[in-house]
Amino acid sequence: MENLQARLIQYLEKIVIERNPYYASAGHLFAREYIRSHFAKFGEVITHEFEVNGNKHQNLILQIAPKDGKQRSPLIIGAHYDTVAACVGADDNGSGVAVLLELAESLSKNPIKYPVQLIAFDMEEYGLSGSRAYAAKLKSDKQKLRLMISLEMLGYCDRQPNSQHYPAGLDKFYPNTGDFIGLIGSIPTIPDLIHFQHHMKPVVPCEWLPAGWRGLAIPDTRRSDHAPFWDAGYKALMITDTADMRNPYYHKSSDRLETLDLEFLTNVCQGLITGIVNLC
Q1: Which tens digit of pLDDT belongs to each residue from 212-269?
Q2: Rounded CA gap, 26 and 6, in Å?
Q3: For residue range 47-78, what is the model confidence (pLDDT) as tens digits?
Q4: Are 33 and 46 in contact (CB under 8 A)?
Q5: What pairing do the DSSP bridges indicate for beta strands 75-80 and 147-152?
Q6: How does DSSP classify residue 159?
Q7: Neighbours of 115 (CB within 10 A)
Q8: 87 in helix, strand or coil?
Q9: 80 near 121, Cβ under 8 Å?
Q10: Cross-strand partners of 47
C-alpha cells in the first residue's frame, strides 16, 4: 500500500496544475501529454479527436487485451483531465486521473477476463463533451459494452459529523459523515454496484445509489462522464467522493494537493482494483 500511495502522489504532483483548455492551455497540453506518455508504456495510445466550437480536442485511449484473448464486450474506465478556469483541480479531477494512471500499470500486468479501455476524457467541464462524443461514436458503431466506470473525484474525505450533504431526501438513507466513497449507477447496474461495494468496503467505507430514469430523477447523479453513456443506453456507473456535497474546495483555486486525504485515495484505488479484477 505504501508503494501504491507513493505512485499516486507521483502522478498527482505532475498533473495537479492549472489545465483548463482555454485559460491554461499550456498546462492542459502538458497534462494531456503526460497521460499519453504514461499510457504509452503499456501499449498503443489511440487518440479520439472531437470538436467543440470549432476547436479540436482529444480523448486518449489505452486498450488492454483480456487475459485469455477471448472476444468479449469491453469494460471502459474513464476520468477527465480538464479543469475549470483558475483551478489546479487536485480532487477534480486529478484524483481520478491518478487512479486511471495506476490502473494502466496494474491491469497491464494483471489483465482481466474483459478487454479494457482506459480513457482520459477531455472537456468534461464543458458539457461532458469528450465522453459525449465517444459514447455517440460507440453507439454509431453498434459497439456493446460490459460496463462504463467514471472516476470522478476520489480523494476528499471529512471524518467530522455533518460533513456530508445530499440532494433533498437522500439524507434520510445515507450517513452524514463524509468518510465514504460513493457508487452511483443506473438501475441495470445494481448487481455491479453491489459487487464493487462488496470488494471496496473492506478497505474503505462505501455507499451505493441506484439512479432511475438515467439519473433524471436526481440530476446531481448525472454530473460526470458516465451520463452520456446512460443516455446512449449503456450500463455505466460513477465512483465519487460526492464533489461539493462534501468538498468545500470544489471548483475553487483552493482545490489543491494538500487538501486530499491520500490514505483515503489509496484505499479507494486498492478497493477498485480488487473489484475490477473480480468482475464477472
Answers
A1: 889 998 999 999 999 999 999 999 999 999 999 999 999 999 999 999 999 999 999 9
A2: 26
A3: 999 999 999 999 999 999 999 989 999 999 99
A4: no
A5: parallel
A6: -
A7: 19
A8: coil
A9: yes
A10: 60
